[in-house]
Write a structure and sequence with these properties.
The chain is built from six helices and five strands. By secondary structure, it is α+β, with helices and mostly antiparallel strands. It has two domains: 38 residues; 168 residues, Alpha-D-Glucose-1,6-Bisphosphate, Chain A, domain 4, CATH 3.30.530. The strands form two sheets. A three-stranded antiparallel beta sheet has the order 1-2-3, with no helix packed on it. Strands 4-5 form a two-stranded antiparallel sheet. Strand 2 and strand 3 form a beta hairpin. About 16% of the residues have low confidence. One of its GO terms (molecular function) is lipid binding. This is START domain-containing protein. Keywords: Membrane, Transmembrane, Transmembrane helix.
Length: 215
């Protein structure tokens, strides 16, 4: 009878131990999942994560002259196509203006004159109060500052292209068709709506590495 009671007591202890182990493992799994999802700043405060990134090697950089050659070839092909179809050349400039009288509303409360004046001022004077250094690569420097307590950040980027003039930079970056040629991360870029007043509406798709979704 005593042996039977001892065996029952040992069985209860074993069940209790297994229960404590299961609860501990479940609690650890929940805590780990919460940390990975929300990344609280107080627990996972990252220091400098990148010092230099291999975005493109020197041999992969496209020369600026290639842009103008590409644009000229594309224009010549369009001219030949329109002449072969018997359409006037001015048809190319019209395009699809289904909503040409629509006006895009710009959130001026968010982007007022002070914001643009600050951007111009920062061309020669960096404003980095509260920001920490994050990464630097190929004349591009990135800083960030915590945004709330959920592990989110506001980013600020400074970049210089010493071998290109502002006009050349604008020509390369504002040419939607050519952007998908030289930028391997931009897979789609086209005008959705052209407007007589205000900026045009464009669709812009950028590939991001896993687990991030495209933007």
């Amino acid at each position: 009878m005593i042996k039977l009671q001892v065996l029952k007591f040992m069985g209860i202890l074993t069940i209790m131990k297994l229960g404590v182990f299961a609860v501990s493992a479940l609690s650890l799994l929940i805590a780990l999942t919460w940390v990975l999802v929300y990344c609280p700043v107080g627990i996972m405060k990252a220091n400098t994560v990148i010092h230099r990134a291999n975005v493109h090697s020197a041999g992969d950089r496209m020369k600026l002259e290639d842009y103008f050659d590409h644009y000229e070839d594309e224009l010549n092909q369009d001219l030949k196509k329109f002449k072969a179809d018997g359409k006037p050349v001015e048809y190319m400039e019209k395009g699809n203006k289904k909503h040409n009288n629509a006006e895009v509303v710009i959130p001026r409360k968010l982007w007022n004159d002070d914001v643009f004046d600050s951007m111009i001022h920062q061309l020669d004077h960096k404003e980095l109060d509260g920001y920490e250094f994050l990464a630097e690569s190929m004349n591009v420097t990135i800083y960030r500052t915590p945004k709330g307590n959920a592990g989110l950040y506001d980013y600020k980027l400074y970049a210089t292209l010493p071998d290109a003039s502002p006009e050349e930079i604008a020509s390369v970056f504002l040419d939607n068709k050519y952007r998908v040629v030289w930028d391997e991360y931009v897979t789609e870029l086209y005008v959705v709506q052209k407007n007589e007043k205000g900026p045009d509406v464009i669709y812009f798709n950028v590939d991001f590495p896993w687990p991030l979704s495209n933007r």
